[in-house]
Amino acid sequence: MFYQTVWEGYYNSVVNNPAGVPMSLASNSVIIPPEVARGAKDVAMVLTCGTAVTGPTGELPNVTVPEGDIVFTVAGMTTVNYAAPGNSYPSDFQLLTLTVSVAPKRGSGLAEHCRHHPPQPGTRRRRPYQRPPC
C-alpha cells in the first residue's frame, strides 16, 4: 500500500536494473506501512494486488479491516506492470485506487486489511452473498 502521490512518482520513473530490464522505480520498493492519522478522511492511496477481479458487471473488490474503524473506498482498478518486492522481473498486477478514512478513536498501530472479491458468475451459493470475515 502506498500513498497515491508516492506511487505515481515512483511508477512514472523508469530505471534500469542489473538484469538489463527497464522497469519503474516502484519495482522492489521497500514496503513501509503508510501512516494515517486518527480522524483522517479520504486519504488518497493505492494497493497492489496479484489476484483482484471485478464482478460480472464491473463491481470492484472491497477492502476492509476486521475492526471496521478504518474505511476503504475503492474508486478504481487498473493493471500495472512492475516487479513486486523480491521479484527480479516485472509482471502484471492490479492496482486498486482508494481513499482511506480512519475513525477518530482508532487505536494506534498496524492494521490487517482484507480484500474481498465481488461474486463471480458461475459460482453456486446456497444463501445470499455475505462478505466473509478477514
Q: Care to describe what's here?
A:
The chain is built from one helix and eight strands. With 134 residues, the protein is mostly beta strands. The chain has one domain (2-104, 111-116). A hairpin with a 7-residue loop joins strand 2 and strand 3 (23-24).
Key phrases:
134 residues; mainly beta; two-stranded antiparallel sheet; 1 helix
pLDDT < 50 stretches? 126-131
User: Helix count?
Assistant: 1
* Largest sheet properties: 4 strands, antiparallel
Number of domains: 1
Q: What does the radius of gyration come to?
A: 17 Å
Order of helices and strands: EHEEEEEEE
Biggest sheet strand order reads: 1-4-7-6
Structural class: mainly beta
- Ends distance: 17 Å
Overall pLDDT metric: 82
General shape: globular
Strand content: 25-35%
Overall strand count: 8
Report helical residue fraction: under 10%
Briefly characterize the structure.
This protein is mainly beta and 134 residues long. It has 1 helix and 8 strands; from the N terminus they run βαβββββββ.
Topology, please?
Blueprint: E1 2-3, H1 4-11, E2 14-15, E3 23-24, E4 43-49, E5 62-64, E6 70-82, E7 91-102, E8 114-116
Antiparallel strand pairs: 1-4, 2-3, 4-7, 5-8, 6-7
